[in-house]
What we know:
By secondary structure, this protein is of the alpha/beta class. Helices cover about 35% and strands about 15% of the residues. The longest helix has 22 residues, at about 245-270. The model has no long low-confidence stretch (mean pLDDT about 95).
Amino acid sequence: MSLAIESKLIHGGIDGDETTGAVCVPVYQTSTYKQDGLGKDRGWEYSRTGNPTRAALEKLIADLEEGQYGMAFASGLAAITTVLSLFKQGDRLVVSDNIYGGTFRILDNVFNNFGIEYTIVDTSDLRQVEEAITDDVKAVYIETPANPLLTVTDIRAVADIAKTKDKLVIVDNTFLTPYLQRPLTLGADIVIHSGTKYLGGHSDTISGFVVVNDKALADRLYYLQNAIGGILSPWDSFLVIRGIKTLGVRMDRHVENAGKIAQWLEDSGYVEKVYYPGLKSDPGYEVQKKQADGAGAMISFVLDKKYDYRKFFENIKLVTLAESLGGVESLACHPASMTHAAIPKEIREKVGIVDELIRLSVGIENVGDLIADLKQAIEASAV
């Protein structure tokens, strides 16, 4: 039976427990499994290699992304590390010019040590992508919308370019989740998530995911998942399954709130610039509308010079100053000193991650209360 995404969130993957009839997948809190004889296990041997609770979640995320093979990890960066471990000395990746600071950090300070290079380009500019794909490039790695400037990249167009050159396309889909965007259906080879964010949805667990369609690629990733060992625990797997069940209703409210706040910011006279691909004034608006079912709930903005961003953070009350995003509560952060501090200042400022930039993860609170809090905090920051 073919299910719509709203139903897949609840009944996708492995639905319940056939042995007991439990509606929820049980937490198999075990490290190892009894074997019936030498070489005779019951499908499970050691929980780093495979665990029934984690397997249910892995099947679920694969179903949601319309993929065949899913893998769950202890964090988004554990997922990214495993994917980057596909590459070897002398390989190069083409990378979006504004990506999560942790992704840049691991490329620049870890994998660079092993001879894996990267080229940073504006992947929303297809000419730059095509020119950057040299013979040593093995993959194009994009976030769309990107973190934190919400730059939109045309996934299908990039995939078409990459395929003519026999290169992989990797898409970080954290900001939109499979509820709003499914990159594999647009030609991507690998989808990555930080499940810590919207998938878990309640700021109470950390996780990461990888989904692919190609079996040979999946076999390599499964090997690396087991060999590197950054797997998700049974309990955290249970929590993320529980979070995913409400993803649809949460994302509907997130997106509704974000659209209203972005429009209010643009019309308010308080800001110099608003970054949000749901605004018709945004350069990524048309591509976003074409490839996704919504613009997400992340907004970045730069206050007018009449206001001090440092005082803004001191005066927010309902919105919380914190790292991360995607929880039911609204969070604000300062990318230059928090999420993107690992990126050198000259690179940050070149792409627009200036000191005055504020990133807002819009929660599911009453939108009037959120706007009132933003308004009073901005007004209190006047210089």
